[in-house]
Amino acid sequence: MTIKNITVLGSGIMGHGIAQVSAMSGYHVVLRDIEKQFLDKAMEKIKWSLDKMVSKQKLTEEQGKEIFSRITPIVDLGEALKDCDLMIEVVPEIMDLKKKVYAEVDKVVPQKTVFASNTSTLPITEIANTTSRPERFIGIHFFNPPQLMKLVEVIPGQKTKKELVDDTINFVKSVSKEPVVCKRDVPGFIVNRLFIPLVHEAAYAMDRTGATKEEIDSAVKFILHFPMGIFELADFTGMDVIHKATVEMHSRDKKVINPHPLIEKLYDEKKLGQKSGEGFYKYSGEQYERINLSEEIAKKFNPIQLLGNILNNAAWLITNQASDPQEIEKALLLGMGLKKPLFETAKQFGMKNIVAELEKLAKNNKFYEPDPYLVSLM
């Protein structure tokens, strides 16, 4: 597959970010949305981002202009797809909406076009099967914001051709990103399968132990080596994103997630985190505020149950041949910013202790039963 022309469907934060990243790597990009006003806004943001890079001397003024000129905003779908080699779909995470978009695309797209979805949790196989080319359909999950985040998850569907996986890995590298392949189309892929259940588990840990959010977050940051606390990270991501991902993942696999009612409650109350001014924490103003966490506060909470949760999901990915330890560590480093490998942290706690903790929880809820891979590491 030779890729020269890319069409990005959807011009929101992810869409215009992917368009910019692709144009910066020399591709000709068509950015498509349903209304001109959305495209105008997206092009303004791309221009602002490129101007910022020019002011920081990461690009010359000439390079900035050249990159910008490689992105063409188009409303008409047929026009947007007429010479497209790779279409990257970035419409909202609603399965019915995605299916509707692909039905329209299928009628006007050239035979040569490969389909890619930037979905973060919806099953690639299910979307692919609504199109006329499931063997030429793949998941390319960029992380937010695409301009800064290095990780891209590559997810083949059940019918995706092997060569397309290799071509997609090469494409991801060509836009200066690091690919991680999720070898099976499992709910949440790699990063969200580890991150989303952990938010719920942290809420359960609060119930079980009476620990404060700050104590749990301090332990996650200073003992589990996350870049920030888990509640902090949830607020930063957005409760709308977490809730939707929870519903999708849980509806497809009850084993992946043990939903805590607090997440849905915050979502229903429009307490979406940083973007709405309140989530787990309260915020004031536009700037992202860091919560006051410390190593001293971290000593008040033992995060072994949280570690057990994320390890159990990592082990599930390994047992079910969706990933391997090296790829999981790479995904956690680049996608979640972990400052120390997960399995190294596990060694410090002792795998025996972690498995024992999971077994204790499993007495009341089978969800916590330790994965055979974890047991094998004891």
TrEMBL record:
Molecular function terms from GO: 3-hydroxybutyryl-CoA dehydrogenase activity; NAD+ binding
Superkingdom per UniProt: Archaea
Lineage, uppermost ranks: Archaea, Nitrososphaerota, Nitrososphaeria, Nitrosotaleales, Nitrosotaleaceae
Top enzyme class: oxidoreductase
Protein name: 3-hydroxybutyryl-CoA dehydrogenase
Residue ranges occupied by any 3-hydroxyacyl-CoA dehydrogenase NAD binding domain in the UniProt entry: 5-184
PANTHER family: 3-HYDROXYACYL-COA DEHYDROGENASE FAMILY PROTEIN, 3-HYDROXYBUTYRYL-COA DEHYDROGENASE
SUPFAM superfamilies: 6-phosphogluconate dehydrogenase C-terminal domain-like (SSF48179), NAD(P)-binding Rossmann-fold domains (SSF51735)
Domain 3-hydroxyacyl-CoA dehydrogenase C-terminal as annotated: residue spans: 188-283
EC number per UniProt: 1.1.1.157
Pfam families, alphabetized: 3HCDH (PF00725), 3HCDH_N (PF02737)
Keyword Oxidoreductase included in the entry's annotation: yes
InterPro entries listed in its UniProt record: 3-OHacyl-CoA_DH_NAD-bd, 3HC_DH_C, 6-PGluconate_DH-like_C_sf, 6PGD_dom2, NAD(P)-bd_dom_sf
Organism, as annotated: Nitrosotalea sinensis
Keywords: Oxidoreductase
Keyword match Oxidoreductase: yes
GO process terms (BP): fatty acid metabolic process
